[in-house]
Design a protein that fits this description.
By secondary structure, the chain is α/β, with parallel strands linked by helices. It is built from eight helices and nine strands. The protein has a four-stranded antiparallel β-sheet. Strand 3, helix 3 and strand 4 form a beta-alpha-beta unit. The radius of gyration is 19 Å and the shape is globular. The two termini are about 35 Å apart.
């Protein structure tokens, strides 16, 4: 059952109307009602078949204005030199096989995990722990890389991953309700543009079927795909 505050917010969204992105974000901020600083989220429904490997839309984008908090970043690196690079770049937790064992023991005090290629054999043993939480390092998202310093700095600056789920939907946070509308709009545009650029060559028909803006607790607001170049 929807609560009274949600129903009040929903009543302010015109049914079936397609809003421009700026109008949708302004409305989402206006009708947010939670006592905490809600995340503003963008949802995109894509015309792809994620069961086919060549239609799995996935990538990363550094949001221009970040997400409102600095991520805790852990790094697993094989050499002392790479571990030092990670520390100097601002990583919160750095180690080698000792950190792998620490994670096996239940440690998950980080929001992102980055690894150098030479330790992936041992990091691979953490798949069952990290995979379900979306924390497993992957070369495609830049979280398995020899350039540890850049990866740490980008992640700290607001790098987010987008990935189509099995129903063809991408769902990503693009800021906080407390952000100015302009900052949320620029973050949202950066995400949407990245997803559009990632269109698989094998995708048939309409690629971006629906774009939706909402806050953590609020109702969805439909965005006119044409207004965002989709």
């Amino acid at each position: 059952m929807a609560g009274k505050k949600f129903k009040t917010a929903l009543a302010q969204v015109e049914n079936a109307k397609l809003y421009s992105l700026p109008d949708a974000i302004s409305l989402a901020k206006k009708i947010s009602f939670a006592k905490f600083d809600e995340t503003v989220e963008v949802t995109m429904v894509l015309g792809v078949d994620p069961r086919k490997a060549d239609q799995l839309v996935r990538g990363t984008i550094v949001l221009p204005h970040g997400l409102g908090k600095s991520k805790r970043v852990a790094v697993i690196a094989g050499s002392p030199e790479k571990q030092r690079e990670a520390q100097e770049a601002g990583a919160d937790e750095v180690g080698g096989d000792d950190l792998v064992e620490k994670i096996k023991g239940g440690y998950l005090g980080f929001d992102a995990l980055i690894a150098t290629p030479d330790v992936m054999r041992s990091v691979g043993t953490l798949g069952k722990i990290l995979g379900p939480r979306g924390l497993m390092p992957n070369p495609k998202t830049g979280s398995v890389t020899p350039d540890i310093a850049s990866a740490v700095r980008e992640t700290k600056a607001g790098k987010v991953e987008y990935r189509v789920d099995k129903t063809g939907v991408i769902h990503v946070g693009v800021g906080k309700v407390s952000f100015s509308p302009d900052k949320i709009i620029e973050n949202a545009k950066a995400l949407i543009d990245a997803v559009i650029r990632a269109k698989p060559a094998t995708a048939k028909g309409r690629y971006v079927k629906k774009v939706n803006v909402s806050t953590t607790m609020g109702p969805g607001i439909l965005v006119d795909p044409a207004s965002v170049g989709a």
